[in-house]
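Margin note: ligand = guanosine-5'-diphosphate.
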Amino acid sequence: MPAYAVLGAQWGDEGKGKIVDFLARDANIVARFAGGNNAGHTVVNDQGTFGFHLIPCGVLWPQTLNLIGNGVVVDPDILLQEIDELRERGIDIADRIILSERAHLIMPWHVRLDELAEISRGERAIGTTGKGIGPAYSDKAARTGVRAADLLDIEALLPRLDDILEYNNAVITKVFDGEAIDRDEVFEKCRQWGERLARYIGPVEKIANQALAAGQHVLLEGAQGVLLDLDHGTYPFVTSSNPTIGGASVGMGISPTHLTGITGVFKAYSTRVGSGPLPSELMDETGETIRNLAQEFGTTTGRPRRVGWFDAVAAKYSALINGYTSAVLTRLDVLDGFESVKICTGYVTDDGEEIPDFPGGVAALEKCRPVYEVVPGWDEPTASVRRLEDLPAEARAYVDRIQELIDCPIDVISTGPHRDETILVRALIDA
Ligand code: GDP
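Resulting structure:
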C-alpha cells in the first residue's frame, strides 16, 4: 500500500516541485491533491526549466501517470495552456493525465470576485493571488460550485448556471460595484472546455486505488505549505484548502492507511508571500541579501517573498500535525558564505513571556519575537554538492541541528535547483 506524500512544511515555495521531480523517478503515479494555480512549482532538469501550476511535477518522467485530484480547484484555461506548452516542448502527455470528475472548476466570476474582494480589503488585504482560488473553494463549500463532470453534460449545467450567476452577479454589481459576468459567454466557454477536456476527465480515485492495490507507487504532491492550511495555518492569512496530510487523503479519495511515507519539505530558512505573521522575519540587510541571492520572488505572482531565519518552533508544529516520517531540506546553498547562521528555537513576547508552542491565534503569533541560536556559517560552498561527506562540517552541523529540533530524519538535502543537485541520505521510496 505504498503511497508517499510530499508536503510543503512551511509557508510554501520550499522547493516541492524539484523534490517531486527528483522522487518521481521511482513513482508510477504522481497526484496533486489540493490548491489551484496559485501554486507555482519550478522544475529544472536536463530537459529544461518548467513552471507547473496544475499539472503534477512528475510528468517529465515518461513512466508516470499524472492525476489531478478532487481536492484541486482547476482553472480550465490554465490547465489547457499547460498541456499545450508541454506539447510544444515535445512532451506529449495526452494519455498520461487525468482530471478528477469531482474537481471543482474556477469560473470567471471566481476570478472577478477574488480581485474585487481583495481590493476592497485595502490595508487588510490577505495577500490572495487573485486567481479565483478562494471563491472557488467558497462555492464548493456553499454547494454552488461547478465540477469537471459538469462539463460532460453542459445542457444539464445551463439552468444551474443561471441560478449561480444570479447570486454571484448580484454580489459583483451590488456589493463591489463591479461588472457583471455574461451568462452566454460563460456557457460558450464551458462548451469549449468540455470539448477539449472531456478526454482527460475521469474517476481519479478509482485509478489511484487500483494502482495502490496493485502495489504501484503513488506520489502525492502537495501545494502551498502546511502553515497556510485553512485549519492549521495562520488563519486568516491562509489558503483555502488543506495542504496538510489529511488533505492528501480527502483530496485524492484514498484511505490514510495507504500512506507509507509522509515527507515534509523544509527550506533552510523561512519565506512567506503576502500578509500574515512570520516571527523570524528579517527586515534588515541580511534579509535583503538572502532575498536577492536566492531570487525569492514568487513564481506565480512575481511578488518579493518575505525572508527570515529557519523557524524551529513553526517547524515542530508542522511535524506535529503531519507526522513526518522524513524531511527534506532545500536551498542549503543559499546560506553559503554567511559568517554565522541563526535558528529560531523559541518565542518570547515583548513582556518577556516565553511562548513554548506555535500559537493558534494570529494576534498571539504577531506578538512573538524570535529567540535565536547562532551557529557558525561555512566558507566552502554547499552548492551542487551531491554527497553528504562532501558538505562542509559547519553545514552538516546546521543540518544535524535542524534534524534534532524537528525530531525527524532529514533524508534529502537539496543544494541547487537542478534535479541532480541533490544529496540522497536515505531512499524515500522503496525501489
Ligand atoms: P515550490 O512551489 O515549493 O515547488 O517552490 P517554488 O518553485 O516556488 O520555489 C522554489 C525555487 O527554488 C525554484 O526556483 C526552484 O528551482 C528553486 N530550488 C529548489 N531547490 C533548490 C535548492 O536546493 N537550491 C536553490 N538555490 N534553489 C532551489
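The radius of gyration is 22 Å.
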